[in-house]
Write a structure and sequence with these properties.
- With about 270 residues, this protein is an alpha/beta fold.
- Helices cover about 40% and strands about 15% of the residues.
- Strands 2-1-3-4-8-9 form a 6-stranded parallel sheet, sandwiched between helices. Strands 5-6-7 form a 3-stranded antiparallel sheet.
- The radius of gyration is 19 Å and the shape is globular.
- The termini are far apart.
- The relative contact order is 0.16.
- This is Alpha/beta hydrolase.
Length: about 270
């Protein structure tokens, strides 16, 4: 078959799929897709800046082994409102109860995305920002001393006048993942996804932690979001706290089993 005929055949097939989608409900993500997870909520994991969804791999394995459906969502890192809107759309396709988890800047996103969704039973913040309405990541980070992140950032100017921010690979481990094996931290540094400067300066929306129970895993040796700030957010939200002494900002990688167990605790206690 010639290339032109193959392309036409592909177009016909694509049109058929789109037409069918207009008539039939698209099979959604997570628990709704199979309908057999029943009693356990879907856990949605949201990564933060300078990471990607693959960082949740060990947490995901533990949760899946224990019978939880898991979605490790891709976070665009383009802006709080933009990222929250994308996550909100994803959440609306999941049937049944949800445990929504955010790491770092992911806490900014889940706080806005969860508002108004009755299926979300708990918010879990893993070394994360817990913003009030209008508070930005940079604004929160300046509340307490201890973050050494600014001096490790390397901006890449963008055509629209914004900038993508990366952590200098040579400084990544000491800044982000001090308790992660050096070879794994090197991979994380190489595959990090940038966040825009405007995203870190953008205020959060109406915070869902005002109406949804929250859980906070505190990384006590965090050099990116100081532990004092993590405690501040947890206390303001009247959330459940668990301290991890010696844990870096990448606690979800270095202590994946503990992180998964903490998420499962939130699932049990809000069932």
């Amino acid at each position: 078959m010639s290339l032109s005929k193959r392309l036409r055949a592909f177009g016909v097939a694509a049109a058929a799929v789109l037409t069918a989608g207009a008539v039939m409900a698209v099979a959604p993500t997570g628990a709704q897709a199979t309908g057999d997870h029943g009693k356990k909520p879907t856990v949605v994991l949201v990564h933060g800046a300078f990471a990607d969804s693959g960082g949740w791999n060990d947490v995901t394995r533990k949760l899946q082994r224990d019978g939880y459906p898991v979605v490790a969502a891709a976070n665009p890192l383009r802006g709080v409102a933009h990222d929250a809107a994308q996550l909100k759309a994803k959440l609306q396709q999941i049937d049944g109860p949800i445990i929504l988890v955010g790491h770092s800047y992911g806490g900014m996103v889940i706080s806005s995305a969860a508002t108004g969704n009755p299926n979300i039973k708990a918010l879990v913040y893993i070394a994360a920002f817990t913003p009030d309405k209008g508070e930005s990541a940079f604004q929160l980070a300046s509340k307490f001393e201890g973050s050494t992140l600014p001096e490790t950032l390397r901006p890449v100017p963008l055509p629209d006048g914004d900038a993508d921010l990366y952590v200098d690979q040579k400084l990544f481990r000491q800044q982000f993942a001090a308790d992660v094996a050096s070879r794994d931290a090197a991979l994380m540094a190489a595959s990090q996804r940038p966040v825009t400067a405007s995203a870190l300066n953008e205020g959060g929306g109406e915070p869902a932690w005002r109406t949804i129970r929250s859980y906070h895993l505190i990384a006590e040796a965090d050099k990116t979001i100081p532990a004092k700030l993590q405690h501040f957010g947890a206390d303001r939200a009247h959330g459940v706290k668990q301290r991890e002494n010696g844990a870096s900002h990448a606690v979800f990688v270095s202590r994946a089993k503990t992180t998964a167990e903490f998420i499962e605790r939130a699932a049990r206690e809000t069932a």
